[in-house]
Design goal:
The protein has helices at 12-23, 37-47, 63-73, 86-98, 115-130, 133-162, 166-169, 199-207, 226-239, 294-305, 322-331, 348-354, 364-374; strands at 3-8, 28-34, 51-55, 78-82, 102-105, 190-195, 218-222, 243-246, 257-260, 265-272, 275-282, 309-313, 334-338, 360-362. The protein is an alpha/beta fold and 378 residues long. Helix 2 packs parallel to helix 3 (63-73), helix 3 (63-73) packs parallel to helix 4 (86-98) and helix 8 (199-207) crosses helix 13 (364-374). The termini are far apart. The model is unreliable at 141-152 and 161-185 (pLDDT under 50).
Length: 378
C-alpha cells in the first residue's frame, strides 16, 4: 500500500511541483494538499496521512505552530521545507524541536547536484520518516495514558495530604544532599558524536544534560547545510551548560567545549592528544557524499587520540561514520550506537552495529547518563 502524503504550502506552484515528484514513485501517493498551517492541521486530523511535507512560512498559521498542533492532535512524521538563510535555519530548528522529523532546502537546486538526485532524495526522505509513524502514535498513546495515571495518582495524593494532621504538616523538610563528581575516568580524552536525520533533536537531548565541567573536548558532526550550522551551534550554546560553537580553523580543543563541524566543509583533528586543534577545509571532492563527513573527522581523531575516544553514532540515513568508527576501534577506542527504537532513521547506527564495530546500543533518553557514568560524572 502506498505511503499517503499530505503536501502543505501556500504556493500553488510548489504544491504542484512537490506533488509531481512524489507521484513519480509508485510507493508514494499524494492524498491532498493544504494552503496553510491551519488547513494542514484540519486535514491531518481528518485524512490521517502517513507523512506531511510542510513549508515554514505560511499565512493564517505558520509551519512551526502547525507542527506543534499536529503533534498534539494526531502525531505524524513531518518533513519541513526551508530557505537556506539564517532566519530560515532558526525557524527550521524551531520546527524540529516542535516535532518535525527532518528538513530539506526549499530550492531543489540546493538539495543535490542534479534534478534526478534531488527527486530521489525527496522520495527517499519521505519513505524513511514514514517508518516512524507507528512508534510516534504509540508514544502519544502511552503519554496520554501516563498523564491519566499521573492525574489519578495526584488526586489520591491530594486527598491523603488533606487528611494529615497539623503535626505531620509541621515536620521540617529534609535537605537533598549534594552529589559530588568522582574522579574523572582517565581513559577518554575526547567525546566524538556523528549524526544526520533526527540529529538536531538528538544532540540537544544529550548535550543539554552534560555538566559544565565536562572533562574533555567534544566534536560534533551533523549533516547540515552551511547556512544552518552557525544557528544550530548558537542555539545549543544558549541551552547547554557546556560551551558549544561552530568549529573554526585553528580552534584549540578545550575540555567542556563542543565543536560543531561547519556545513559544506570537512573538520579534521590535528596535533597530539595533549594539544589538539581543528583544521577546517573546503572540500571539492566528488568522492565524498557528505560535507561534513563523520568518517573524515573520526579518522583524523583516531590518529591523534588513538584509544582515548568515546565515539557515538546517532540517528541518521546512510552509513557515514562506519569506517571512521572502524579505525577508532582498531586503535582501541570505544564505540556506541543509538538504539533502533529511539532513532528517527536507523541507518548510521545500524551500519556500525551490523559491522560489529559498536559495543553497545543505547536509547537516546539514556545516552547522556551513560556518558556521564563513563566519565564518572554523577
Amino acid at each position: 500500500m502506498p505511503i499517503r502524503v499530505l503536501v502543505v504550502d501556500d504556493s500553488s506552484f510548489f504544491r504542484r511541483r512537490v506533488s509531481e515528484i512524489i507521484e513519480k514513485d509508485p510507493d508514494l501517493t499524494v492524498i491532498d494538499t493544504a494552503l496553510n498551517g491551519k488547513d494542514a492541521v484540519d486535514k491531518a486530523v481528518r485524512l490521517k496521512p502517513d507523512v506531511i511535507t510542510m513549508d515554514v512560512e505560511m499565512p493564517v498559521m505558520d509551519g512551526i505552530a502547525s507542527v506543534r498542533e499536529i503533534m498534539r492532535q494526531y502525531p505524524t512524521p513531518i518533513l519541513m521545507f526551508s530557505s537556506l538563510t539564517h532566519d530560515g535555519a532558526k525557524a527550521t530548528l524551531d520546527a524540529l524541536e516542535a516535532g518535525a522529523l527532518d528538513f530539506l532546502p526549499k530550492k531543489f537546486e540546493d538539495i543535490a547536484r542534479n534534478k534526478e538526485d534531488a527527486v530521489l532524495l525527496l522520495q527517499t526522505r519521505i519513505k524513511q520518516i514514514s517508518k516512524r509513524r507507528i512508534s510516534m502514535r504509540m508514544a502519544a498513546l502511552r503519554t496520554s495514558s501516563l498523564n491519566r495515571v499521573a492525574t489519578s495518582r495526584a488526586n489520591r495524593l491530594n486527598e491523603q495530604t488533606s487528611s494529615l494532621n497539623k503535626k505531620s504538616l509541621g515536620e521540617s523538610k529534609k535537605t537533598t544532599p549534594v552529589v559530588k563528581s568522582r574522579s574523572v575516568n582517565k581513559k577518554f580524552k575526547m567525546l566524538a558524536i556523528g549524526t544526520s536525520t533526527g540529529g538536531p533533536v538528538a544532540l540537544q537531548t544529550i548535550l543539554t544534560r552534560l555538566p559544565a565541567n565536562f572533562p574533555c573536548p567534544i566534536i560534533l558532526v551533523q549533516h547540515m547545510p552551511a547556512a544552518f550550522t552557525s544557528a544550530f551551534a548558537s542555539r545549543l550554546n544558549s541551552m547547554c551548560q557546556i560551551s558549544v560553537k561552530e568549529a573554526e580553523n585553528g580552534d584549540q580543543l578545550k575540555p567542556g567545549c563542543a565543536y560543531l563541524a561547519p556545513g559544506g566543509k570537512q573538520m579534521m583533528v590535528e596535533g597530539n592528544s595533549a594539544s589538539a586543534k581543528l583544521s577546517i577545509r573546503d572540500d571539492s571532492s566528488e568522492r565524498l557524499t557528505y560535507k561534513p563527513s563523520v568518517d573524515v573527522t573520526f579518522a583524523t581523531a583516531s590518529k591523534v587520540y588513538s584509544e582515548s575516544v568515546l565515539a557515538i553514532i546517532l540517528t541518521g540515513m546512510g552509513a557515514d561514520g562506519r569506517e571512521g568508527c572502524r579505525l577508532l576501534k582498531q586503535q582501541g577506542s570505544l564505540i556506541w550506537a543509538q538504539d533502533e527504537d529511539s532513532c528517527v532513521v536507523y541507518g548510521m547506527p545500524q551500519a556500525v552495529c551490523s559491522a560489529g564495530i559498536s559495543s553497545e546500543s543505547i536509547s537516546l533518553d539514556a545516552m547522556a547518563d551513560r556518558i556521564k557514568s563513563e566519565f564518572n560524572l554523577v
